[in-house]
Amino acid sequence: MKNQTFNPPSLQEWQEAAEKALKGRGIETLHTKTYEGINLKPLYTEEDLPAINRVEAYIPGADGKISMINEWKIAQKLTRKTWQDLSQALLGAVSRGQNCLAFSMGSLELDQGFDSFINGFAGGSLPLFNIEKNNTALVDRLSDMAEENVSLKKLKGVIGFDPLSETGFADGEYNLAEWADKVTAAAGNLPDIKTIVINTSPYHNAGSNAVQDLTYALSTGVWYFERLQEKGWSPEQIAKKVHVHFSVGSHFFMEAAKIRAFKKLWKDMLASYGISKETCDGCISVSAETSHFNKSGLDQHVNLLRSGGEAFSAVLAGVDYLMVHPFDTVKGETGMFSERIARNIQLILGEEAHLNKVVDPAGGSYFLEWLTEEAGRLAWQEFQRIDRDGGIAASLKAGKIQESVRKVCEERLADLSTRTQSMIGTNIYANPEDSLSGVEVGDEDRLSLPFERLRRRTEKLAMSGRKPAAGIIGLGELKSHKPRADYVSGFLSTGGILSHLSPGCSTKEDILHFIEETNYPYYVVCGKDEEYDEWLPLILETASNYHSQIKMDIAGKVSEMKMSEWKQLGLNGCIYHKQNMLDKLNSLITMWEEENRND
């Protein structure tokens, strides 16, 4: 066997074999379109590789020689109720492998407790990491303290916020003048702290796609360069103070391509300001956090899997700082166990998957290299369009960016509600007994919120003693109705509705006995299409004679003519593949709510 050789198949041979397996369908049926408008093929070859120098494009500082390892800072953000507790928590995290002092102020005040906290870390080598909305007061306080305490001037890391994305995206307004003054005042006292932050997370957590994230990062960078040059900053000074922050979603390759593409585009943008290659290599500082947008309060431990894949994607892209949110972040307050697991995800990626031993571990992948170039090309086109329209600030004030992101978010939600996209534990494989206790279902942007709001309603009904439950009437033998019965059961579980499958029903008496035994207000008939013509009139009559208020659906989609005919006999509707689950479940839960009020 060692002496055997195999001729690699050509692309044409692969296509012929694939089409044979597809039973005559063309290979183009395997193409998929992303939210970025990129058409993905099922197979990529060496011919798809872009004609660029990968090392120079994506690996800052390599200078054509790969002699580094892929190091990143584990920036697990901790929040506590006192500065002393926060200090102890950070020291504990560092003793367990964390190599960055990432924290959130939360409700803490910048008082003497803060002074003791920051002085306690002044002589250390670990960088600080704090990106929070409107934290200019923190930068200001640190700058003032550094004037009196020389050791604080040695602090390094990232502390800042993005007034354009974090306030401008929300309402189109921002206080750029105050921000610029604070950043300028702190520049001399905190030379190694990056205070100019470009944060794309607000766009991501509102539903934006990867190309939009890229575009807005570049556009924000240009805006800050222009404004700070008016303050007397040189392009080199600005570039060394800039840090770019991304959220990473669950589209694994697209998210890795997004960050890799940014590095190349950022180099191109710096070059347009006359910054040399040697200078700009040290000016690319990138961090990432796992997405809030795709995390669910339902089956929360699945968030671990989502975050693990997102962290993997960010590391492949070569981020400098990485924050993995604990799986129970949706509760508002996390626990020590979930914080530990989130930190360990990064330790596993480095120490067990050895991703910290290889520079650009994803480099050379035909698909990822092509996708990186394609995402960058589309982002550059959109960046130029925004620039022609007056820049990102003008687009935010006009609401153009908000509208563009909203459209993508609506597309994502539509796909989730029809199961075109799956969210395990939320819109598929849901546990109807799952509880949302402690989960914040507020105004924040999360894709699962419409499903969680449905579950809140069923939980409220359960507390009143009327937990929604439905009967599933299976016609004939189990094997003939089980596929549709399983689909209906999973569909109803998504809304927190319990279901009870009948034994195989072969007579009117079987059906009546099941209805009498369960006495539910709602049933779904599952069988083959040809069985419905024979059985449905009889079932509807039997149910109506037992109780006139019983509602009956069928599993499967039928023609409008047939549905109109059956509705005249008393059929309520149907449950079928690619149906809008939110609309259907909302109407069903409303039925139980109205029944509860009538009682």
Automatic annotation (TrEMBL):
Residues 146-441 form the Methylmalonyl-CoA mutase alpha/beta chain catalytic domain. This is Methylmalonyl-CoA mutase family protein. Its cofactor is adenosylcob(III)alamin. The keyword Calcium does not apply. Gene3D superfamilies: Cobalamin-binding domain, Methylmalonyl-CoA mutase. It comes from Rossellomorea oryzaecorticis. PANTHER family: METHYLMALONYL-COA MUTASE, LARGE SUBUNIT, METHYLMALONYL-COA MUTASE, MITOCHONDRIAL-RELATED. Belongs to the methylmalonyl-CoA mutase family. The keyword Isomerase applies. InterPro entries: Cbl-dep_enz_cat, Cobalamin-bd_sf, MeMalonylCoA_mutase_a/b_cat. Keywords: Cobalamin, Cobalt, Isomerase.
